[in-house]
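chain and backbone:
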Amino acid sequence: MATQFRAARFTAQEALQFHANGKPGKLEITPTKPLATQRDLSLAYSPGVAIPVKAIAQNPSDAYAYTSKGNFVAVVSNGTAILGLGNLGALASKPVMEGKAALFKRFADIDAIDLLVDTPEVEAFINSVRYLGPSFGGINLEDIKSPDCFIIEDKLKELLDIPVFHDDQHGTAIVVCAGMLNGLKVVEKDIGKVRLVCAGAGAAALACLNLLCKIGMKRENILVADIEGVVYEGRKSLMDPWKEPYARKTKARTLDEAIKGADIFLGLSAGGIVTKDMVASMAEKPLIFAMANPDPEIKPEDVHAVRSDAIIATGRSDYPNQINNVLCFPFIFRGALDVQATTINDAMKIAAVEAIAALAREEVPDQVAAAFHGERPTFGPGYIIPAPFDPRLLTHVPAAVAKAAMDSGVARSPIVDVEAYTARLKGRLDPVASWLQSTFDSVRNEPKRVDLAGGAQHHVIRAAVSYFNQGFGQPVLIGTKKIVQERFRELGVPLRHDYELIDIKASPYIDEFTDYLYARLQRRGYLRRDCERLVMNERNVFSALMVAHGYADAMVSGPTRNWTSVYGDVHRVMDQKPGRHVIGVSLAINRGRAVVIADTSIHDMPTAEQLANIATEAARAARNFGIEPRVALLAYSTFGQPRGERSDQVREAVKILDERQVDFEYDGDMAADVALNRDLMAHYPFCRLSETANVLIMPAFHAASISTKMLKELGGATIVGPIIVGLSHSVQICPFGATDADIVNMAVLAAYGAGRT
């Protein structure tokens, strides 16, 4: 299976806007303890803070118990080798380092912060990091030029008793080795016998070669070529102590000469340096790892044009077999931190290699398969390395790394109960983030036409451009054509032929849509001219009719209208899906915790039966989000105290669910704090929920609306939705005032058909 992905595209302005929106940058610091009262402050700072200070002074290892050290990583750079952009200075590297820190949090729940050391001097850099070392549980070095990076890493590992890891070197090496082991398994070749040619002799390339030798490749079977040509015995130009071990006795002087008959090509150099003729000259069933970014040494389509037996991997997301460091660095640090490792040694790196490689040989879960939209990848030429968003990485790799640390004697806090540790790792997973990513990937693989009602609005136009640029499909803008064209000019955005503009009043669908709407509404007091007026004047009605008639796949509206008004227009055209119930669900995501809230849009004062229906639909939605539902039916009361009319309805809903024998955990009535707090829930040992609730059924719409808005504004939660589920066609409505980014996200959910699953 060799699915080709569409690359996400974006404009420079979109990238700048992403980093500038809200709080500038991608990081913030949030206290983990309450600081609301004077007592809280006294415990957090003076005088209470003196107690852990004294404890740490007596026993330094207590820093892991009383501070954030054990889950805190510094991402450190001097900006001398930023991405492929070169030496742009420490400050220019900050967006990259913030991004790296964000990935640590997203993939492994590790708190990380960027440290920029504004000096190219090696000794000064070493001393800066050395003296800041006690703050952190680990150091991730990033974007430092070669050979400085070798010297810096080696010295810091000597000086510090915490893991020091240069990801450009070792992260790349680990993922390359994992992919290469699997590639060799597919082509049935022995790592100890194959011949490899490497283009590039920088930090990443040499780290790859060093680790390959540690897992069984013979150094004498490796030829290296750099900008001077082949690295051979006796060469004087551009040689250094790190490159010297790969100087071979050979007559080959060019990459063209070296690659003939090779089993493996490893490229960490420059785009386009490998030709089809070179590939054709390689051995039977070659492995080609063309890792240059953004353009590989040779594109996969060019390889396949001359070799049907080749396996190819690149660093790009739009081709199969992406070699991406994110498969490694969050997880190797997770394992190292969890055992308080003093270093990341070769045994831990090899354990990571083997764990990543083994994962690609296992059956792929639904969350990952969704990214391939219907084609479940299986181990083979097109799938030799796990997808970067595979949620299993967090349970497989850290556990293997932690075990290797313990076995090799560098773990200060060995794990006693491995099963409990694996369970804790699963608890760090963000299922919603994984679901959203798989959803986005799925839409890119099967792009959709999405109606964007309100096409004359600036933020809707920006959303349309972004939707197209990210590879999600074709945006259809509903609005007066002349006005929409003028808005494009005002924004300075080119009006591409890929965007469809539909002027309602000039549409050829008016008669067809009017007939359809009149047939639906004639017994609700509507005359045909009323329906014609709705079709010609109400963009949301028109857009819904486009979807109902199959002229568009999905619809998004709402950023300039009241949510209820928009839904009223849509409801004129569409009904609920047979056997389903239309509700609105919202996802509240805060500090790694995701909770589904319902009904956040449709039912005002639901009856007991409606509450039971809402609970069933919300549980279904939670499973679609990757969350195994534990449903709490909320009230101001907890299990009958105090009594009230709304609480009675909630308790009756629980009885209805009992009669239906549904397949998810549920209970109620209960207050929100009981549902969400393990200690409070423990006061009710008869409670049916096995853990705190992750699906909250509100007793009324007003409670749902108020709570989600308060969570967003006061609690800093990210709220996704309301997402409409249960409707006959794919429609999503943005909240009033939604930004262009919000509109794009809802458009993708609509395109995916989140409400119809």
